[in-house]
Structures are given as structure tokens and as C-alpha cells.
Recover the amino acids of this structure.
């Protein structure tokens, strides 16, 4: 990566790369520095994080509840599964304009988009996780005298937790995608809004700076999600 | 202790096993021997209620809570420690955590796994996981023990050691056992009676042999008993439908 950045810097300074389209890393870094030093970035960061984290939390809860309900109730599965399959098949970001129409340009529409991206992913993780649960474990608990409640506590919940935590990193990425895309479509603040502004003013340095910032935050959250997974699933990493 | 009458089991139109009659008297070790697909495992699953027979009756002199089932696979909960796995049955039956885990530690010590309580199943060898599975079942002090080829996945030495330990426990505590296996030598060494099934579908009882080797049994010494060789030949004939090809090994 360092080599790539050095090469890019050199090519930009030598005029091989047009700085209008591919500003050197040093210029991108300066823009990033200015965003933080003059404090302009903080309200936008707050808006994106708020939307992403709210969408992530709500999407996790909804996905888990619906996934469990569908896996344990065949009638609900018949209703939910086709809807979720359809939602999974389409690029769900295309729902962003609809959420803006329904919920306005503020936080709610971004949370809604992040929520739907996460909820569908988590639904399949939970639904599939329960259906794929090791039947030998189910039989083991039954032969030890365990009924439905014990099975849910001792087999289904831990099994599904492993699936959900395994998908947490992807869910984090989806939540940020929902927040940023929602802001890009229509917003008055947020990193997506700044991206939209950078695009409309042909500011490649700002665009790249924002992309780098989003990548950095998502990677940080990936690392946090991985730590959480390792702690919660320490039986897997023992 | 256990009587099976006219048991017919299947998973489709044609039954795998048909009209089985079988008796496991209290305190006896009975083995059900047969080729793959003869429905041996299905018999055990019917006794535990995991499978409903198509026809026939199962009579038990013990309640469901007095039956222990040792599966072929360990089926230990990977997200629970060894101690928690052994205590699981006790906890399900209402024991508080601390006494259940203390009991679990005692069972682990009895099976040579003292100090392993805090580990997870993936940290154990195959033989160790099998001992944990045995501890998990015996911790409930069953009166009837059902075993479905529990040691099939272990190497010969570990298998013999663990089988011997379990056999000693069974004899000391006068447990009633129904073992399912397709290991002829294991069947003779451990059992009082061996039932032989024919090949499925529509498998049926082909033969019954009583094993005249006195208890307590040593698995290796049992192979030197005068009756061992002839029993082995008989079982071979029952299973293959032909006389044994080589006599010298017996």
C-alpha cells in the first residue's frame, strides 16, 4: 500500500497523472487535515454514524426477530421468505429515493435504508442458521430430557449467534452503505452529503479524502466486530 | 427392562426393518448386530422416541428419564465447556448450576479427565470427547443404556480402553445395556446375548446367540475363551450367509 501511494504521488508530481482527476495523496491528506482542523467534518461524521449505527441496531433486532419467527413458525416462513428473497435479489439501495419520499431528507430515511440492508442479511443468517442447526445436537438435548425451551436456549440461540456474529462485519459495511447512499441521494449533512457536494463541484481531492475516511471508519468497525466475535465465540477460537 | 414386539420401522413405503422381537432383561448386556441399512439405529431411535415405528410395540420398565443414549457422534455442544456439557443433563432436570458442575467434575475425574472441565470440545482429542459424552450420559445415572456404535470413530487401542472402562462401570452398577454395532468381536466380548439382523430393506431377526463367557469380562481375555471362536464363526455365517473363508485367524 505504501509503495502504491508513493508511486501515485510520484506520478502526480511528474505530471503523468492529471491532478484534477487523480490528485496526489499529499493533497488528499491536506484536505482531510483541513476537514478535521476547522471542525467542519464533525457534524457530518455524527450524522453518518448516527444513521449507520441506528440502522445497524434496528436491522439486527428486526432481522433476528423475523428470522427466528420464520424458522419456528412455518406459516410465517411462507409469508416472509418470498418477500426477503425478493428484497435480497434487488440492489436494495434503489429504495433510497422511496424512503426520502416517505420519511423526508433527515435521519429517518437514512436509518431506514441502513435498516433494510442489514435486516435482510441478518434474516437469512438467522433463518438459515436455525434450519442448518446440527440435528445431532438437537437429538442429544432431546435425549437428555430437553424440551423446546431448552433447545432454543442451548442449541438454537448459540448456533444462530455464531451465524449472526459471523455476518456482523458484513452488516456493519451494509449499515454504512445505507447511511452514505441515503445521504448521497438527499440530505443536508453526512459524509454522503459531502460526497455529493464534492462530486457536484468536481473536487476529486475531497472525494478521495471522504472515501478514505469512510474506509478507515468501516475498517475500524470491522476490527471491533471481529473482536466482539472472538470474545463471544471464544469456544471457536480456543 | 425392554421388550420390543413386532417392530416395523421405515422411512418410506418399504420398511427398513420388519417384525422385530427383542428382549433386554434387567442387568443384561444385549447387542444388536447387523449390516448397514438393517435398521439397527432405528430400533434405538424408536426406544428413545426420536422415531415413531410404523407398527409394533415397545415396552419399557423404566421411564424416559432413566434411559441414557450414547450416540455414534459425540454431539457435545461446541459452545459449552466440557464441565457444562457433562452437567447439561442434570441442569435440564432441575439441578442448580453449582451442584451440577460439581457432579460433572466428579464424573470427569472418574473418566480420567480431571482438570479438563474448563476446556472446549474442540480442544480435546476424539477419545477425550468420547469420554466426555460418556460422562454426560452416566451423570444422569440411567438404568437403561442405549449405545449406537459409540466407539466406531476411535482407533483400536483407544476404543478397547474406553469400552473396557465402560464395561466395568456397567458390570459394577448392574446397568442394562442395548448396544448396536457391526463389530463382531466387540459384540461377543461385551455381551450376554447377541441378536443378528439380516440385510435391509425388510430386515428381520436372523439369529440369536447367548454368550457363555462369565463376568466380570476382560475384553482382550474374552477373545481367548473357547466359545469365542465358534461364536465368531456363527456370527460371520449369520451376517454373510456363507461359511467363514479363513479358519486360522480364529
Amino acid at each position: 500500500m505504501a509503495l502504491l501511494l508513493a508511486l501515485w504521488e510520484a506520478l502526480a508530481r511528474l505530471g503523468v497523472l492529471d491532478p484534477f482527476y487523480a490528485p496526489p495523496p499529499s493533497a488528499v491528506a491536506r484536505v482531510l487535515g483541513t476537514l478535521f482542523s476547522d471542525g467542519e467534518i464533525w457534524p457530518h461524521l455524527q450524522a453518518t454514524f448516527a444513521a449507520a449505527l441506528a440502522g445497524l441496531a434496528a436491522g439486527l433486532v428486526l432481522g433476528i426477530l423475523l428470522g427466528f419467527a420464520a424458522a419456528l413458525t412455518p406459516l410465517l416462513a411462507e409469508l416472509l421468505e418470498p418477500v426477503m428473497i425478493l428484497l435480497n435479489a434487488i440492489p436494495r439501495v434503489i429504495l433510497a429515493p422511496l424512503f426520502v419520499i416517505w420519511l423526508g431528507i433527515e435521519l429517518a430515511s437514512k436509518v431506514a435504508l441502513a435498516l433494510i440492508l442489514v435486516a435482510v442479511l441478518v434474516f437469512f443468517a438467522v433463518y438459515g442458521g436455525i434450519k442448518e442447526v446440527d440435528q445431532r445436537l438437537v437429538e442429544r438435548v432431546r435425549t437428555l430430557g430437553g424440551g423446546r425451551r431448552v433447545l432454543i436456549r442451548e442449541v438454537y440461540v448459540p448456533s444462530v449467534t455464531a451465524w449472526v456474529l459471523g455476518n456482523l462485519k458484513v452488516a456493519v459495511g451494509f449499515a454504512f452503505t445505507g447511511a452514505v447512499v441515503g445521504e448521497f441521494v438527499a440530505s443536508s449533512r453526512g459524509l454522503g452529503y459531502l460526497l455529493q457536494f464534492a462530486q457536484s463541484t468536481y473536487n476529486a481531492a475531497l472525494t478521495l479524502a471522504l472515501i478514505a475516511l469512510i474506509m478507515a471508519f468501516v475498517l475500524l468497525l470491522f476490527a471491533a466486530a471481529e473482536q466482539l466475535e472472538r470474545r463471544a465465540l471464544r469456544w471457536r477460537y480456543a | 427392562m425392554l421388550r420390543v414386539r413386532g417392530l416395523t420401522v421405515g422411512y418410506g413405503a418399504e420398511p427398513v426393518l420388519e417384525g422385530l422381537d427383542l428382549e433386554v432383561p434387567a442387568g443384561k448386556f444385549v447387542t444388536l448386530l447387523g449390516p448397514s441399512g438393517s435398521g439397527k439405529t432405528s430400533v434405538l431411535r424408536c426406544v428413545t422416541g426420536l422415531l415413531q415405528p410404523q407398527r409394533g410395540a415397545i415396552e419399557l420398565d423404566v421411564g424416559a428419564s432413566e434411559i441414557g443414549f450414547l450416540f455414534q457422534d459425540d454431539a457435545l455442544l461446541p459452545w459449552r465447556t466440557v464441565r457444562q456439557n457433562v452437567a447439561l443433563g442434570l441442569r435440564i432436570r432441575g439441578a442448580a448450576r453449582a451442584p451440577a458442575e460439581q457432579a460433572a467434575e466428579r464424573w470427569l475425574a472418574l473418566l480420567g479427565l480431571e482438570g479438563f472441565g474448563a476446556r472446549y470440545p474442540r480442544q480435546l482429542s476424539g477419545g477425550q470427547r468420547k469420554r466426555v459424552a460418556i460422562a454426560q450420559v452416566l451423570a444422569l445415572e440411567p438404568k437403561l443404556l442405549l449405545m449406537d456404535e459409540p466407539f466406531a470413530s476411535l482407533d483400536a487401542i483407544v476404543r478397547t480402553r474406553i469400552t473396557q472402562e465402560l464395561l466395568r462401570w456397567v458390570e459394577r452398577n448392574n446397568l442394562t445395556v442395548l448396544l448396536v454395532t457391526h463389530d463382531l468381536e466387540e459384540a461377543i466380548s461385551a455381551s450376554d446375548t447377541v441378536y443378528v439382523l439380516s440385510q435391509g430393506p425388510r430386515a428381520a431377526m436372523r439369529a440369536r446367540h447367548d454368550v457363555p463367557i462369565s463376568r466380570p469380562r476382560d475384553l482382550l481375555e474374552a477373545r481367548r475363551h473357547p466359545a469365542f471362536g465358534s461364536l465368531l464363526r456363527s456370527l460371520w455365517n449369520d451376517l454373510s450367509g456363507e461359511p467363514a473363508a479363513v479358519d486360522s485367524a480364529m
About this structure: The longest helix of chain B spans residues 156-173. Residues 243-250 of chain B have pLDDT under 50 and may be disordered.
